[in-house]
Structure formats: C-alpha cells, structure tokens
Amino acid sequence: MADDTPKTHDLDDLLAVMARLRDPDTGCPWDVRQSFETIAPYTIEEAYEVADAIAREDTDGLKDELGDLLLQVVYHAQMASEDERFVFADVVDAITRKMIRRHPHVFEDASRREEFVTTDLWDRIKAEEKAERGDHADAKSVLADVPVGLPGLTRAVKLQKRAAKVGFDWPDLVPVLAKVDEELAELKEVLAADHGTASKARAAEEFGDLLFVMANVARHLGVDPEAALRGANAKFVRRFESIEAALASQGRGPEDATLEEMDALWDAAKTPEKKG
Q1: What is the C-alpha to C-alpha distance for residues 180 and 148, in angstroms, rounded to an integer?
Q2: Runs of H (alpha helix) within 193-275
Q3: What distance in Å separates the CA atoms of residue 53 and residue 164, rounded to the nearest whole number?
Q4: What is the mean pLDDT of residues 265-272?
C-alpha cells in the first residue's frame, strides 16, 4: 500500500527551492532580478511580522512567520553564493562559533556564570572580536557601528547605551524627565512662532529631540520603546474599534458621529480596561 503521508521538508529542501527560484534560465523572473538591496526591506518586514505574531500570542502564525524570516536568510545566502562570497553553511558556522565564543560560562568554564551575569563579559568578548577583525582601525567613535537602518527609537536607545558605557549619561531618571520638559517647551515655542517653511523644519527638529529624550526615558526605565509603542498602537486600535462597534449598533459609522460622541465612547472603552 502506498504511503500517502505528505513529505516533511527539511532545510536542504528549502535551500534547493531557493536555488531553483534563482536559476537564471528556469527560475522565477521576479526572484532572479532581486538583489541584496531589494530584498532587505522584506527582511525587515518579516522580522516585524514575527514580533507581531508573538505580541498576538499567535503560535500558528509565529510558525509561519519564522518560516518567512528563515526564507530571507536563505535568500541572502543564495545570492551571496552566486557571487562566490559565502554559502548558507558559512552563515550557520559563523553564528554557531559566535554563540559558543560569547558563552564561555556554558561551553568552557561554568565558574564564569556569575561573571557573565554581573559584568560586561558579553561586550568585552564582542570588543575582542572586533579587534581581531581590525574593525577598530576605521572606527572614529564608540557609536560608529550602531546600524543606521534600525528603527529610530531602537537606534536611539542603542546610541544612548553606547554613550553611557563611557560615562556620558544621567545618573538616574530625574534629570531625564527634566529634559523631557525642556524639549517639550522648545517644541511649544517653535509652534507658537510663525508657521513658515523654516519653522516647520525647526518643529520637526524639536520633535525629533523630544522623541530622542523619550527613548532615553524608556532606557532608564528598562522599557523597550518600540514594544511600548506597539502596545499603545494596539490599545488605540482596540478602543477605536470599540467606538465603531458602538456606533454600528446604532446603524451609524464614525463619519456620522460628532467628535464629542466619539470622545464619550472612547472614555467608555477606557473604563473597563482601567478597572482591569
């Protein structure tokens, strides 16, 4: 009797599929014309979709999204192999070596567990790796290798952490909150001025300063600002959908309601959340 059980594919199958898609003669025309630069935005997008599945506690969705993210790694490795730069196995080898090297308390000497937890052992090992690669030769700043492509709030926190390591930091949250008040006052001052092109540019600058210091508040609180903002976004969606549902029960939509009516429904949606 024939076995009708569907084949379970493995990583080798995925690598073969990617190679087939990129074949210049028999592959997919869209995949063939892609490059590192054109695929990079999809890589970032897939990472966010993984985070979204986690936030929604969607385990099935997480499985799919992790697959999509894995495809991005395979995609970049395939393109690199075509240029004879490296292959997927090199990626696996590099990250495996890195994890072993950065966890000496696990793979070498268990007595270093306390050192890993209470000191900057991880960062020291990273610095040693950079020195071995010669990365320090071109670095002009402790901030030099913070990726510019990171989301703005995430990069702000990383920049602030780097500066803090060399002593450029406030000792606690109090002066940071004072800086928030200062930046907000500067933004209000610009908004109170004439609204020409120059003032709009200045307003954008002051708004950026305010966001930067808010990222610093998050860092001092030990809060991930991107995660906090995602939570605020989700809260807004939840409460606005509550407004839509309440209006729909009356045979209306938001466009049929006044701002005062929607504000009242917003407050009604907030109440059970705050009690909870």
Answers
A1: 24
A2: 197-221, 225-248, 259-275
A3: 33
A4: 89
CATH entry 1.10.287.1080 includes domain 152-275: yes
The answer, yes or no, to whether residue 7 has pLDDT greater than 90, is no
Query: Where in the chain are all domains bearing CATH 1.10.287.1080?
Result: 11-102, 152-275
How confident is residue 136, by pLDDT bands cut at 50, 70 and 90? low
Of 8, 79, 88, nearest to 39 by C-alpha is: 79
Mean pLDDT computed over every residue of the chain? 91
262: burial class by Cβ within 10 Å (0-12, 13-18, 19+)? middle
The residue type found at 274 is K
Chain centroid to Cα 42, Å, comes to 13
**Among 18-32, 107-121, 177-191, 217-231, where is mean pLDDT lowest?**
107-121
Q: Are 145 and 135 in contact (CB under 8 A)?
A: yes
In tens, the pLDDT along 202-257 reads 999 999 999 999 999 999 999 999 989 988 998 999 999 999 999 999 999 999 99
Q: How far apart are alpha carbons 209 and 183 in whole angstroms?
A: 7
pLDDT average, residue stretch 125-145: 74
- Residue 118: phi and psi, rounded to 5, are -100, -5
Handedness of CA 248, 249, 252, 257 (dihedral sign): negative
Distances (CA, A) of 21 to 42, 91, 185: 17, 20, 55
Span 11-102: which CATH code? Answer: 1.10.287.1080
Distance, in Å, from the CA atom of 253 to the CA atom of 239, rounded to the nearest integer, reads: 15
DSSP line for 90-159:
HHHHHHHHHHHHH-HHHHT-GGGHHHHHHS-HHHHHHHHHHHHHTGGGT--STTTTS-TTS-HHHHHHHH
Distances, alpha carbon 117 to alpha carbons 23, 78, 102, 157, 233, in Å: 48, 38, 13, 21, 34
